[in-house]
Fold this sequence. Notes:
six-stranded parallel β-sheet, 8 strands, 263 residues, globular
Amino acid sequence: MSPGLLGAIFDVDGVLLATPHERAWRESLQDLMGADWADLVTATDYAPERFTSALYQELIAGKPRFDGARAALEHFRVPEVDARVLEYADAKQARLMELIKSGAFAAFPDGVRFALALKMRGLRLAAASSSKNARDLLQQVRLAPYPTPQIENELAVSQHVASGATLLDLMDVDVSGRDLPHGKPHPAIFLLAAEELGLAPAVCLVVEDAPAGIAAAKAGGMAALGVARAGDQALLSAAGADLVVSTLDEVDVEQLMAGRGSD
């Protein structure tokens, strides 16, 4: 980490929110393999138990929808991938919307606390998720239950966040779900976030839970903080993370601002 951070760019799924993306990818593929694609199963490497959380984190997490669908189908050696990517991506999205409608998502308290702590220290914040659902979900999460008493008092005095504000309101910029020429691990979405924050990449910190997102941050010349919620510290480190934690409560914000992470 380098001192002089002025902005923080947050991935959403897996960092700020526990969303059912992984479940939607897994269940939609299982449904296809059990029905419309049943005649393909013996020609593939697919079995329900092989769609693990580790596989999701390594191959799918953080990527745009069609890239994620392609990665999964190629991994399981599904025939005629080009002809099947759209069907799988659409099935995943339909299942995701069903799960979201049922309320199958929640904020990570440590993620909200960390974002608030950075905001209170003057950093500009951006949300930068590949998901087109991220903005709507962020708008549904109220900040009121999450601040510590100290931060809550600071917020009231500084008027950074009004009563009843949402996690989306905390962000200065949201570039989630934008149609870009390249998805993660290309840095396009993070470079766009830095640009809209009015900051140089070198003074931005990216907070990510996926190896593809860490690689994108480093490719864009940004510091990268990995959140290993799935026990994937090694993958995040291998992708180039400057610091890896299992929860954002582990990060000493004062040391982070000074360029020393959580040592």
